[in-house]
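Example record

One chain of 584 residues, shown exactly as stored in the release files.
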Amino acid sequence: MPRAQKPYLVLCLLTAVMGSGAAQAPQPPSAGNAPEMTTHDVPATFRSKVNLVLVPVVVRDQTGRAVGTLGKEDFALFDKHKPQVIATFSIETGGKAPQPETVPAAPGKAPGEAAPGKAPGEEPQPPAAPDRFVAFLFDDVHLSFGDLAPVRDAGERFLNDSLTPADRAGIFTTSGRTTLDFTGDRAKVHETLLNLRPQPIARSSGQDCPDVSYYQADLIVNQNDQEALAAATEDTLACMNLDPRQRQLAQQIAHSAAQRVLVAGDTESRISVGVIKQIVRRLSTLPGQRNLILVSPGFLTLPDLHPDQTDALDLAIRSNVIISSLDARGLYTIVPGGDASQASQSALGRELKNRYQIAAARAEEDVLAELADGTGGAFFHNRNDLAEGLKRLAARPEFVYVLGFSPQNLKLDGSYHALQVTLKDPHKLNLQARRGYYAPRRLADPRETAREEIQEALFSREELRDIPIALHTQFFKSGESSAHLTVVAQVDVRGLRFRPENGRSCDDLEVVTALFDRNGKLVTGGHRTIEMRLRSQTIENRLGSGITVRTNLEVQPGSYTIRLVVRDTEGQMMAAANGAAEIP
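Predicted structure tokens for this chain:
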């Protein structure tokens, strides 16, 4: 098939992998002559694993260098001040991702046979894969032109000085109006940067009267804060030149303005959080190092958005995507009471307005810091050397510890759980860790959970060996611009945890294959579900060499990397392997 260029192919493939909700589940055999092995297009539903809360931690010495010599016993973890048992512990390094394995790929030949003109054992080398993918996400929904111009120039300098030929850069915006998928073409990246413009979606582009921030609007409408309403009323009296005796009218105007601002702010913050999650998911489908750099002046997220923000963090952590953020305002100050173009207010009005401006700036900045802390990234703020900031943000920490724990008696109430990570011996060491998480309001859907687990394995580069597997390829060209590629999976099923039923040993295998081009884009994929209802003598006598599963794909000539994932239903064991194919 033609090379796919749209990220939604990922979702389409995984939807096909998991099957539709209307599909009929296969019935267990009821007779002794039932077939021992059948293949279905609709896979079985996996049982979900115990939910872990993952906490990335970066430890640095006094010089700012990441420390990678600590062990699980060196950390203490607290959930709402209660000590937790660290159930899982791992160290992620900032080195290069492992390259795909060399696998046989010969036109018209069985796996293991040499291609014409090649000696036995001489295999094709895997195509060169990018080492690093950097997604620049410009929050043009919240950025002003005064903020955007300097960061755009800083992005130009960063691209000229810091990206290597093995890097792939992508330009994305929260409005979605300016987008460039990951590429090594620097000219296209520069051209896209020049096209960046502020794209407010719901806010007025001029000076409003009264001038109510999203932060202040939340206080007025959602929290019934009378002091915040009084500040907006004072602003209304001043900017509309109303008589002080018209205070009640000014209050009504201020409250109506707060309601409009709240709706606009909700819309823009929801869009920004949603796009962050989309870009994290896009990065999760790519090999190698994956960085998301969020360039934004900051924005406020109210409680109803916190679950979405937590989902984005969790997905980034599971996918080894590091989010770093750059405060596009640089080194800034709050002008007390607003700028000189604003109407004069009373002393009380100026004092209240200044207070809410400062509080809003801190709240808007906090989301940038939380995204960075929560994934092991960095937060660059209160400095004007933005090109240096981008350079620092694009460099992953050399070591990131990931602590995992299972919350006990977790209530499904959506409440915030503050996390604290400490070192038992913190001498001359600084620690950065995830700040907290939100409890879910309902149990996760098992089908959706299984789909996410498959996706994480499919788009990772990690080799998994719970089930012994071998990956081979073979192809033949059907024309100048088309070829048939067969991915052959050899699976050793003798170690699976079969379920006894009706005198048979029962288990299902899900075999998922994905093909990526040299820029890491998903091209196509396929899946097979193998239902095994085996007699004991079959396992002993016929399955010594395993079972073979073939996936046929239609492709264009080119260099491809292959990802194979195998998972069984009963033991929930998983295997994953990397391969390559070069089709001239």
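Notes: The CA atoms of residues 467 and 495 lie 7 Å apart.
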